[in-house]
Amino acid sequence: MNTSKLFETKSTLSFEVFPPKSTTPVESIYKTIDGLSPLNPDFISVTYGAGGSTNNATISICDVIKNKYGIEAVAHLPCINLTKEKVLSELEEMKKCGIENILALRGDINPDIEPKNDFKYASELVDFIKQHGDFNIIGACYPEGHPEAPSIVEDIHHLKEKVDAGCSQLISQLFFDNEDFYSFREKTAIAGINVPIEAGIMPVTNRKQIERMVTLCHAKLPKKFVTIMEKYEDNPVAMRDAGIAYAVSQIVDLIANGVNGIHLYTMNNPYIAERISSAVKSLF
Ligand code: FAD
Q: What CATH number is attached to the domain comprising 15?
């Protein structure tokens, strides 16, 4: 199923998982999917390590999600370190498994890996996929602006180019202040970006995770959030519960403000996804 059709009738709740590290058997992910599947997500997306830190089992995991669990799957595909030939073989693999949805990404630039130079930006990958198959293409977007972009205006200008190249829906980077999302949504509407945008929500349940996220995504931490985290950082259970409560309050506010959907970064933790889903399921 083309996941962009879901937004015609409802707000969506989707999950993101990542393949296990290359040192861990790929089958370990199925325990996570076993836990997520009773929560009836609209789709599950599977990341793809641009730097090769995971065993790049993205497509085989999507295959199982779709064909064994009967849940729609979205395969992430970052292009910066892939040749056109490799992308073509990944697309063929997806066609064989019946995977219809791709999150087309540039991928983060890793100073230790020489980019392949076949694709510079995600929009080039979107264009390439369009020419080589009948896929629903999704793009990434950044409510606080992409960290490399000189300004949010320039970033939205390039986002419009990416959507015009063929994205029919967007999934946002995580953020902790909903006002950033609302302001971004307004700017995208002014720029003529009319595709559904799912809001990316990450429940933060420990201090190390926050530090990693801030370094990786440059996400701004609102004062309210920092106060909660400082108060509970030495109490793991309280910290977990506070992180879940914060994510739930963000989702309630987003749904009340007419968001197209929520994309939950599950961190492969079904317990946390279950707590959040059950708290908000009547809102969808
Ligand atoms: P692009 O859309 O290409 O944008 C990258 C930068 O280039 C932006 O600053 C943009 O403004 C600028 N730009 C775009 N076009 C032009 C142009 N024509 N001229 C000048 N500048 C331009 N990474 C992974 O490796 N694997 C994953 O599975 C993964 N999943 C993700 C899922 C989500 C929901 C999100 C939000 C991110 C994910 N990422 C993943 C991270 C992503 O790859 C990085 O954020 C990356 O730095 C940018 O990818 P992009 O597809 O948004 O790039």
A: 3.20.20.220
Does residue 240 have its Cβ closer than 6 Å to ligand 1?
no
> Model confidence at 110, in pLDDT bands (50, 70, 90)?
confident
Give φ, ψ of 92 to 5 degrees: -65, -45
pTM, to two decimals: 0.97
* Cα(168) to centroid(ligand 1), Å: 16
Atom of ligand 1 nearest to the CA of 173: 36
Measured in Å, residue 146 CA sits from the centre of ligand 1 at 7
pLDDT in tens, 267-277: 999 999 999 99
What is the 237 CA–ligand 1 centroid distance (Å)? 34
- Total domains present in the chain: 1
Residue 145 Cβ contacting ligand 1 at under 6 Å: no
Query: 193-244, pLDDT tens digit by residue?
Result: 999 999 999 999 888 888 888 888 888 999 999 999 899 989 999 999 999 9
Q: Rounded distance, CA 60 to CA 41, Å?
A: 19
**Cα-based angle 183, 188, 190 (whole degrees, multiple of 5):** 95
Give me the domain span that covers residue 25: 3-283
Average pLDDT value for residue range 42-70: 88
Q: Report in angstroms the alpha-carbon separations of 125 from 89, 244, 268.
A: 14, 35, 27
